[in-house]
Specification:
alpha+beta; D-Maltodextrin-Binding Protein, domain 2; two-stranded parallel sheet; globular
Length: 470
């Protein structure tokens, strides 16, 4: 009996050791692609500030933040990391620039780096980026958003692309046997799925007349063949011209008008970003134009939902093919930072993003959350063997049903879905200008898409683009 007990105890110990080794090996499966310096700032005391520190009320995230800083400072005792709870807002950030209160490292939308590069707010980090051969690791479609004249200014940490969210059961019950792959197919499907008596729309998109409405309109325009440089073009003289008053943009607006007035498949109320996602989540819409990161948001916001009933696919193709507009977040470094601060800040972020143990710790923290939302149709941040290895590693933690959005990811990685960026410059102002036109078309059946867009382009030219040339 004692012998059997000893064998049982030994077996238990072996099992525990094996589990521990498997856990340690999991992080080791990720290659350590960053060569961290033996010393930062050659050991000189250096302090840098960084945005996006979780609020104290978010106790779990703040605890992880503090623990991560402690681990970094144990490696580099001369470095002090000062967190700031500030999160980027295009409306408030210019005040920080004017007051010279830009943190050493600050996160902005992936749509906005060029204006901070052009105005000298963001500093060049190419030396560290190139030393670690990150050009071979990052997705080129993402990294070009923080690149100018072959110099790199940012480290993207989150990226998404636009797609079509849909309720699997509603499509099946409504007699729609496959996810629409063209706008004509979507119109036909949306008609079947719209149930006015039950308050159900077949299709929805953001329509609150704010900038996000213009954002959604633009990606529809891309599927009709519009390019960022068509909507706002730059001449050899450096002057910008508004081109969204003709061509593919007009065709896209005609489609939106048809969805509202001919097909009657859109919600009757105006929806913002949250309302658009909520409509899909609560069964008030069968399909929705949305960003990939909102699929995860639905899981986080509606914990009672069975996400196996929600899919995410490429946007329907138009004359311009299958296209998606990309966005996300990136860290930039202040051009006013000292060389020591720049080195400390950049290596902090590289360590956070790529150190195998840190990647594992972040996934473990997420998995421990009561309503963990891991995975989803996010834009691949990296390429090649590293992307494959990192994806397979992260996949073991997924709580979102991969098979429901794998077609979207396959379309992105294969190039079937082409990726486009936002038009520049003055993207937010452009979005607001076209949003007003979309709102008019959605509320006034007699509105002429071509005339309305042409008038908006003319006004945008004089109030925005002509001023940039001065």
């Amino acid at each position: 009996m004692k012998t059997m007990m000893r064998f049982a105890m030994i077996a238990c110990v072996i099992a525990l050791l094996s589990a521990s080794l498997r856990s340690a090996h999991a992080a080791a499966d990720l290659p350590g692609i960053i060569k961290m310096p033996a010393k930062i700032a050659e050991g000189r005391p250096v302090t840098f500030s960084i945005t996006n520190m979780p609020a104290e009320t978010d106790t779990a995230a703040r605890k992880q933040w503090d623990e991560r800083i402690a681990r970094f400072q144990k490696m580099y005792p001369n470095v002090t990391v000062q967190g700031s709870e500030y999160t980027y807002d295009p409306q408030t950030f210019p005040a920080k620039v004017a007051a010279k209160q830009v943190p050493t490292m600050f996160s902005v939308y992936l749509t906005d780096p060029q204006k901070y590069i052009d105005t000298g707010v963001a500093g060049d980090i190419s030396a560290i980026f190139d030393a670690n051969k990150l050009g071979d690791v990052y997705n080129g479609d993402v990294i070009r958003l923080v690149t100018k004249d072959k110099k790199v200014y940012g480290l993207p940490w989150n990226a998404y692309a636009m797609g079509l969210g849909y309720n699997i059961k509603m499509l099946k019950d409504g007699g729609v046997d496959k996810v629409p792959t063209t706008w004509d197919e979507l119109r036909a499907a949306a008609k079947k799925l719209t149930k006015r008596d039950a308050g159900v729309a077949g299709f929805t998109m953001i329509s609150d007349a704010g900038p996000a409405t213009g954002w959604h309109f633009t990606v529809v325009g891309y599927t009709f063949g519009a390019k960022p440089g068509d909507l706002i073009s730059k001449g050899a003289d450096g002057k910008y011209t508004a081109g969204f008053g003709t061509g593919a943009a007009v065709d896209a607006l005609k489609l939106i008008k048809d969805l509202r007035w001919t097909d009657d498949v859109l919600p009757r109320e105006n929806l913002d970003w949250g309302g658009n996602g909520t409509a899909l989540a609560t069964g008030k819409a069968a399909m929705a134009l949305m960003a990939g990161d909102q699929y995860k948001w639905i899981k986080s916001s509606f914990p009672e939902l069975d996400m196996k009933n929600f899919g995410f696919a490429p946007l329907p193709a138009g004359p311009g093919g299958t296209v998606s507009l990309i966005g996300g977040d990136t860290y930039l470094v202040s051009a006013d930072a000292t060389a020591d601060q720049k080195e400390a800040a950049v290596y902090w972020e590289l360590w956070r993003l790529f150190d195998p143990s840190e990647v594992k710790a972040d996934l473990e923290r997420q998995k421990a959350e009561p309503n963990a939302a891991i995975g989803g149709p996010e834009l691949p941040m990296y390429v090649g063997d590293y992307q494959k290895t990192r994806f397979e590693f992260a996949k073991t933690y997924f709580t979102l049903p991969y098979e429901n959005y794998s077609a979207f990811l396959d379309a992105i990685t294969s190039g079937k879905a082409k990726l486009q960026v936002e038009p520049t410059p003055a993207a937010q102002e452009y979005y607001q200008a076209v949003a007003a036109v979309v709102s008019t078309v959605l509320t006034d059946k007699s509105a002429d898409p071509a005339a309305s867009l042409a008038a908006a382009a003319k006004t945008f030219q004089t109030t925005q683009l002509d001023r940039l040339a001065k």
